[in-house]
Amino acid sequence: MVDADTVIHQLYQTTRAISKDLNQRFEPEGLFSSEWSIISVLRKRGPMTQASLAGYLNIEPPAISKTLLRLEEKGLIKRETGSSRREKLVSLTALSAEKYRQWENIIAAHHADLLREIGTDDLEHFVSVLAALFKNTCRP
Questions:
Q1: Low-confidence ranges of the chain (pLDDT < 70)
Q2: Spatial CA neighbour of 102 closest among 17, 8, 36
Q3: Residue 124: C-alpha distances to residues 19, 53, 82, 94, 117 (Å)
Q4: What is the pLDDT of residue 81?
Q5: 3-state percent breakdown (helix, strand, coil) of the chain, nearest 5
Q6: Share of the chain above pLDDT 90, in %
Q7: Residue 78 bridge partners (DSSP)
């Protein structure tokens, strides 16, 4: 029987390894996995407020502000005042749209390498276990 410490340690190690591998693949593009997650969400969902983006990605507001600043400096996103002066609406720039397909190819190769030789049934079970873990972390 596997103990809880082993499970959690393996989960942390795996997520760190996934991020490290993706960061290495994105390095020639000058992009980080944390930046990609924001770009990907904005591409799929359209412009969002900074607060909505932080909530959707489960990222603390100071951390997302720092990442958004880097993306803004790279010319990949723009932040504009929303319906209230305090609200910031985040959207992709033309430069992001231009580079998106190239980044998407990097992601596709990354995902294919990660999931190779893992059967559909195993993946479905794994997703349900991850969902249960996530649900347990969200309990008061």
A1: 140
A2: 36
A3: 22, 27, 39, 36, 14
A4: 85
A5: 70, 10, 20
A6: 88
A7: 91
> One-letter amino acid identity for 97?
A
Contact 68, 50 (CB under 8 A): yes
Q: In total, how many domains does the chain have?
A: 1
| Domain ranges, residue 89 | 25-137
Does residue 2 form part of some domain? Answer: no
For residue 59, what is the domain's CATH number? 1.10.10.10
Structural domain contains residue 4:
no
The tokens for 38 are 């924001």
Distance CA 90, CA 68 (A): 9
Alpha-carbon dihedral sign for residues 111, 36, 32, 8: negative
The whole-angstrom separation of Cα 111 and Cα 117 is 12
What pLDDT was estimated at residue 116?
Answer: 96
pTM score, whole prediction: 0.88
Helix (H) or strand (E) holding 78: strand 77-81
